[in-house]
Amino acid sequence: MDTNLAAVIYGPGDLRMEEYPVRNPGPGEVQLSIRCCGLCRTDVHFRDFGSVGHHKVGSPSVLGHEISGVVNKLGQGIVHLKEGDPVTVDNVVCCGQCRQCRRGRQNLCEVQHMVGIPPNDGGLMRCLTLPARNVYRLPQTADFEEGAMMEPLSVAVHAVNRAAVGLGDLVVVLGAGPIGLLALQVSRARGAAHVCVTDVNNERLKLALKLGASCIVQLESVETDAQVAARKVQETLGEAPDVALECSGAAFCLQTAILAVRMGGVVAAVGFGPESVDIPVMEAVVREVDIRGCVANNNCFAACVSMLENSQVKIKPIISHRFPLEEVPHALDVVRKRQGLKVIVNCGRDLVNGPQTP
């Protein structure tokens, strides 16, 4: 591969499209020819502010953690992949040996790194080398856009797992963005009897209905009374939900989620929002509401690929914008302005998202 155009972050507000070194795979590694990479607000935050939580931009690195591609080269010892395989990437790279990993909480690995999260290189480039154990073969029926969406789907699957959504449950999903729309579908696949979706955007709510929502609640953008919003959810569902999946990151929605669920209910906090918010903690205490944080995914990719292969989730309706790799800065602006839903960057030279060939 003679050139490797990449979106390299140097610091806050300093993203450069430039050539980047191509690294040959070592033992246990695989080199991918990247086809598609999804963008999310995490990428925007790194571009604009140089950090997300405790992750900070230090040395130059390549953004992009929602990745699909084709196996280009194999390092020694790889038996589950072959050159030319269409693949997706689990961006959580764990050590497998620390206390958290031994307890089955790989996403909380004490020494983990995440593909595409600085200082670790990601998929907004032509060619990427990474651990082969994080690479999953895509089903033949899937395309590369769907492959790039396996990472956000894994976030939704992990959230539904954390909330322990089960057969017959009533669920409310707060926020009809990409993660919320995926969490809706995963909840239905898990056996939820009814799923209510809330948002301020009516078009997103219409899409939620098409993707399996039982009912919707359109919240006012200036709404400030979480108790009133919680009652709207309960009245629309007919009773208080068992589970609330907060996927917006808005403080108001987290407050609403806590107030809306039944006694003994569960709130899964999925969306990234302010560092700290005021919540009705005594309501959670006296009604024994569980508030469970959710970050990345915990060994969910095999389930995600299976859901895609068995048509248990619809990906394409959630993709609203497509850009070539050269236009990453503009694509990030589209995400920042919340225009549309999921933005996909096509990293292949031919800009074709079709037959899966190397």
Any descriptors?
globular, alpha/beta, 358 residues, single chain, 7-stranded mixed beta sheet
Structural class: alpha/beta
What is the typical, i.e. mean, pLDDT? Answer: 94
**Large-scale geometry:** globular
Radius of gyration: 20 Å
Count, helices: 11
Relative strand content: 25-35%
Q: How many E-type strands?
A: 20
How much helix is in the residues? 25-40%
> Can you summarize the main beta sheet?
7 strands, mixed
What's the end-to-end separation, in Å?
12 Å
- Which spans have pLDDT < 50 for at least 5 consecutive residues? 351-358
Q: Which oligomeric state applies?
A: single chain
3D structure, described in words:
- This protein has 358 residues and is of the alpha/beta class.
- Helix content is 28%, strand content 26%.
- The protein contains 11 helices and 20 strands.
- It has helices at residues 41-49, 99-102, 144-148, 150-163, 178-190, 202-210, 226-237, 251-260, 281-286, 301-309, 328-336, and strands at 5-11, 14-19, 29-39, 51-52, 55-56, 61-62, 66-74, 86-89, 92-93, 113-114, 127-131, 135-137, 170-174, 194-199, 215-218, 243-246, 266-269, 290-293, 319-324, 342-346.
- Helix 7 packs across helix 8 (251-260).
- 48% of the residues are buried.
- Mean pLDDT is 94; it is low at 351-358.
